[in-house]
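just leaving the lab so this will be short. what follows is a protein written twice so to speak, once as letters and once as structure tokens for the fold. can you read through it and tell me how you think this chain folds. thanks a lot i owe you, the record is right below.

___
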Amino acid sequence: MKQTSIRRIKGPTILLGSGTYYDFEAPETSEITIEDVAYGLAYACRFAGQCWSPILQRRVFYSVAEHCVRGSYQAEDDDRLDLAHDFLMHELGEPVCGDMTGPLKSLCPEYKTVEKRCEAANAARFGVAIADPDAIKLMDLRMLATERRDLMRWGGEEWEWSRGAQPYSFKIIPWAPDVAAEAFLQRYEELGGKL
């Protein structure tokens, strides 16, 4: 009987949905695709999956991809079309690293270092250079304030990080992961990206 060869993974790598390997020690050499990004973000739940909708009166799944798409359209609504692409692509570390909650991430500096390197490598791969990081941060805080209002059992207490951040006027009723992935890809293409 002929023996089949099995590829053995050495070191910290993961197999992406596109069939290529992502190397956490050399993310600059990885061939991640925009579909890997879209689906990785669409299946990563924000807030460690602890979302509850006061609108739907039940627990819900809310993805990082939906966060990026909604914020991207908000940039356009705010007449900041220049920020729309940057906001869509601002979570480029998370398709491969996952979405670790901010409070936990602050306790894991080594993880944050790996995530930032992956984010930089993926940004270079897709030609993303955040032109106005302060504006993206403000939009992110406003999205977080909106998400807190629409996706959490929030009692109205003040959170230090969100002091002064006003939620957007739209209401969030979350999309299914596949819908979020397709919305991400559609928005990417609308903003000039090649699929």
